[in-house]
Each structure stands twice: as structure tokens, then as C-alpha cells.
Amino acid sequence: MDLSQISDSPLTSFCMFILCLLLARTVSGEIDRQYLACVTKTCGDGQNISFPFYIENQQEAYCGYPGFNLSCNDKGNPVLKLSSDTNYIVEKIVYHNHSVHVSNAAFSETNSDAACTFTRIKNVSLPAEFQLAPDQKQAVFLYNCNSSLPEKLLRHKLLAGNCSGDDTVLGMFEDDSDLDYASKQCKESAVAPVAVDMNGEGMGDHIGIEEMVRKGFLLKWRASDCRVCKESGGRCGFDADTFHFQCYCPDRPHAKHCTPGMYVS
Predict the structure, then answer these.
(1) Which residues lie below 8 Å from residue 55, measured CB to CB, with a gap of 6+?
(2) What's the pTM value of the predicted model, to 2 decimals?
(3) Where is the Wall-associated receptor kinase galacturonan-binding domain (predicted)?
């Protein structure tokens, strides 16, 4: 066979073209744009934000999982919106066990109005991506209660602090034996989850409830696992068009990781 015919064949020419293209890409140091876009970011409080979370206006939506978009407040804290009108400060993200500690922004200790804001608490509605972690409890707040309360309920009365108005507010846990009776003395209610210490410290103490609500609660999230991709040198993301996890690598996006020949079940 004439070697010149092989070298001039269309298939050989195409293969040479692809090889040259890859070599040129390597030599030029061109890095995949999605890999570059999904570098870890921060709002300013020192927390590194990466998949499944992403910061709006700092990171592309494909760098995170749908429903995990964060914003940054003017104090440099990442903020997660769990319902349409309630913001939660992201206190800490623990990536290895898929948990995030959040607190109601209205209860933030950095809020100068914090002593008043418990009267504006709303029911927490969790989207499908999140669920309460174990060892959480529901605190119940009762509003517009009768001004002359039975003596047995006075221990649940919350101090108004600097709040204006005469609204009487009660706070107790959902398993409190007085809850049913107290509910009949008040016109409105709201429920907020709180993290409970293993020894139950603060349970049954109305000051403890208020402090526990300010400290927030722990959520577990449901999203694709990023570990294998990250350990292979990639950056995790999500393709909203195909609704599939992506591992963004320096050369190009891959399905699970950046390591050639590696098998992942």
C-alpha cells in the first residue's frame, strides 16, 4: 500500500487536525470558561461559597444547584431566601455532611432593631431541597394575646424590649403542655425551628426560646455530591438544560470527574 495515499486520506487529515487543535489548546494554556467561572467566592465574612451554593451576580447559575442561590447583604453575610419574603443569614456551611446553619435575618444580633423583631416572625416554609436536621425543635410564638393572662401562662410571656405597642407575645415549644390552653388566649401564631442542645439546655425557659431563635437552626440539603469531582481537581456545577450534574475541568466539562479512566458507580 502506498503510504502517501494513507497520509493524504480524509480520515488521516481529520485526525491530524484534531491532534493539532488539542496541542494548540494545551500550548496556549486555554482553560475551560466554566471551570474558570466556578471558582470559589465569598461575600466578605470569610466563608467560601461553592457548589451546591452560588452567589448571584458573582457566580454563574451553572456553578450551583437550582434553589441554592445566595445573595450578599451590606454586612458581608451570605443570605439564603427560604420563602418569598424571609431572608436567612448563612452562619456556616458544612460541605462534607451537607448541612447549613441559618438564622432569621430579622433576628440577627447585628440588627439594631433585634429586640423588636420577634413580633414580626413568620412561619418557616422549607423548599424541597432542604429539610430540618435532627435535634431541631419547633418554637411557637403567639401574638395579640389577652392582656390579662392566667398566672400559669405568665412564665411564657416575652419581654417587649424597645418595641412600641402593647401587644402581648407568648413563646413556648410545640410539646409544651400549656400550648393548647395558651392558643385560646391569643389570636395569631407562628412557628420557627430552633436547634436544641443534646442536654436540652434552655428548654422551657422563655428567655432561652428567644435566644435560641436568634441563633437559628440547622438544615440538611439534597443535591448532587461534589466530592469525587472536587477530589479529581474539578469544580462542580449543574446543567439546567439537561438537568444533570457537571464536573467542570480545566479541559472541558465532564459527567462526574476529571480523572481519565476512573470509574465511578
Answers:
(1) 41, 43, 49, 69, 70, 71, 72, 78
(2) 0.76
(3) 38-103
